[in-house]
């Protein structure tokens, strides 16, 4: 049976619902060869069916299931429980806001100092959890079509040592040009789909928006100011900010897109295939990965978030102003922005030359 992704208006309650079902799923699929009292397992499955109202209730049930002999249940549950605590602290308004960046931020901050084996367990458990959700939710009743999480965390750099080292992949200026040129040779399913990806890729490259932020843009929150567009967006934690982009950088695709059927709820973007449906962030990211491969570009981390990292990296390479990049990327923690200095050869060479003169 399938259920709406956001089954409750409160993200906390929605997560509790999905974690409950996930624990039940793992209980029914993990090895039970060491179970000596099947009635205890049945009692706890019934407790799960009774819809626990808190994460603590679920934790107690998991303890009972493990004591009864279901091996591995805690290995899958503990990372998911910690992710629950992390996600709630982000003040999300929808489970659709969960993307690669949020998951990797969680893994990096919650597994520092752990062994590679434990880090892999966390990564695999989180990936397994969201695969389960992808397979069991649906956007509309009885449609069979749901929201799919295409989380690309298999190459998470946190596994290269105890502390982890999250170095973002990015496109060079030459690769950006190659990607944009290749859009003209790609065989899109329709002109509408071609317009959609021409526009959204350029928008992310010029603003560093997260794909979820781009898809939530309200047309009523867009204003023209001379040759620029001022766009009010709602980012992580339901925080509002204003981004600015030269209008000419989005033309003529913006004008042509404006002639397409209007999207629901005054959204700028909706499904490339069906204007009556909202666009899926994971599907957009998956298509961008396909477009990158069409352009002959292969990176460790692909998809829409690669474009955001490209914006941050190339912006820093031009301005060498970490505070400005932090502001433009809307990072709360400067440490997150510092990752974009990974290619700052000029500063490293300057330090090397200074020391070289001292010890000459």
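^ structure tokens above, recovered residues below v
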């Amino acid at each position: 049976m399938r259920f709406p992704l956001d089954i409750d208006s409160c993200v906390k309650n929605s997560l509790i619902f999905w974690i409950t079902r996930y624990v039940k799923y793992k209980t029914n699929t993990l090895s039970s060869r060491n179970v000596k009292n099947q009635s205890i397992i049945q009692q706890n499955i019934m407790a799960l069916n009774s819809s626990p109202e808190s994460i603590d209730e679920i934790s107690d049930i998991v303890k009972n299931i493990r004591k009864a002999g279901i091996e591995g249940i805690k290995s899958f549950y503990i990372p998911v429980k910690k992710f629950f605590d992390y996600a709630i602290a982000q003040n999300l308004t929808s489970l659709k806001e969960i993307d690669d960046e949020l998951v990797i931020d969680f893994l990096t901050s919650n597994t520092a100092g752990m062994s590679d084996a434990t880090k892999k367990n966390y990564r695999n458990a989180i990936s397994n959890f969201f695969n389960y959700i992808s397979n069991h939710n649906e956007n509309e009743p009885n449609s069979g079509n749901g929201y799919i999480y295409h989380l690309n965390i298999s190459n998470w750099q946190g596994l290269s040592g105890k502390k982890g080292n999250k170095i973002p992949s990015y496109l060079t200026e030459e690769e950006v040009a190659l990607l944009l040129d290749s859009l003209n040779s790609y065989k899109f399913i329709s002109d509408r789909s071609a317009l959609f990806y021409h526009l959204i890729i350029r928008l992310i490259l010029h603003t560093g928006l997260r794909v979820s932020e781009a898809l939530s843009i309200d047309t009523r929150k867009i204003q023209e100011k001379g040759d620029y567009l001022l766009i009010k967006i709602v980012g992580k934690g339901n925080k509002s900010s204003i981004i600015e982009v030269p209008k000419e950088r989005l033309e003529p695709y913006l004008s042509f897109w404006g002639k397409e059927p209007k999207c629901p709820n005054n959204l700028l973007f909706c499904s490339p295939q069906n204007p009556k449906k909202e666009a899926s962030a994971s599907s957009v990211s998956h298509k961008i990965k396909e477009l990158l491969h069409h352009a002959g570009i292969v990176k460790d981390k692909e998809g829409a978030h690669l474009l955001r990292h490209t914006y941050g990296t190339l912006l820093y390479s031009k301005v060498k102003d970490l505070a400005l990049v932090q502001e433009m990327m809307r990072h709360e923690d400067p440490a997150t922005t510092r990752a974009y200095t990974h290619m700052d050869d000029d500063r490293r060479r300057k330090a090397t030359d200074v020391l070289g003169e001292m010890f000459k």
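Residues 161-165 have pLDDT under 50 and may be disordered.
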